[in-house]
Design brief:
mainly alpha, elongated, Alpha-lytic protease prodomain-like
Length: 231
Amino acid sequence: MSQASETAVAHGNPREQHDHGHAGSGHSHGLVDPSIKRSRAGLRVVAVSLALLAITAIAQAAIYIATGSVALLADLIHNAGDALTAVPLAAAFMLRSERAERCAGIAVVLTILASAITAGVFAIVRIVHPLSPTHLLALALAGAIGVVGNAIAARVRLSGGRHLDSPALIADGNHARSDAIVSTGVIISAGAVAAGAPIADPIIGLLITGLILRITGESWRTVREHDHHHD
C-alpha cells in the first residue's frame, strides 16, 4: 500500500478520503453516483409506464360511460389501480432505499388485491341486477386499448426492473403483462353480448376478478422471494 493510501486509512474511511480527494475535480467514486443513476433510471421507468397506463385508463373510462360494461369496468378499475402503483414506486426510487422499495412492492400487491375485490363486487351486483352493455364496437375497442397499453407498460417495467434488479418493478411488470391478457376478456365480452348472451358480461367480469387474484399471488411471491434472497 502506498504512503498516501496508508495515511488515508489512518485518518478515516478510505472511501470518504478517496471521494474527498476528487471533490475538486468535480467527480467522486463510491456509492453515491450509482445510487443517483439508479434512482433516475427507476423514475424514468415509472414515469413512462404511468403515462401509458393513465392514457389507457382515461380512454377506457370514456368508453365505459358510453357502454356500461361490467367487464370493461373491472378492467378499467384494475388499470387505474395499476397506474396508481407508480406513486409508491416513484417514492422508493427518490428515497434510494431498498427498504422503501420493498414496501413499494407490498403496496403494489395490496393495490392489485383491492382492484380485484372492487371488480368482483361490481360483477356480482350486475349479475343480480342485469343490464346489457351497449356500443359493442366501442367496447371491443376499449379491450384492445387495454391489451396494447398494458403490453407496452409491461415491457417498460420488466426491462427496467431486470436492469435495476428491482423486485417491485418486476412484480408490477408481470402484473401489467397479465393485464394485457385480462383486457382480452373485454373483447370476448363484446363478442358474447353481440351473439345474444348479455349475461356473459358480468360473468367475464368475475373471471377477470379471478385472474386479478391470481396476479396478486404471483406478485406477492415475486416480492417475498427477493426479500428472502437478500436476507
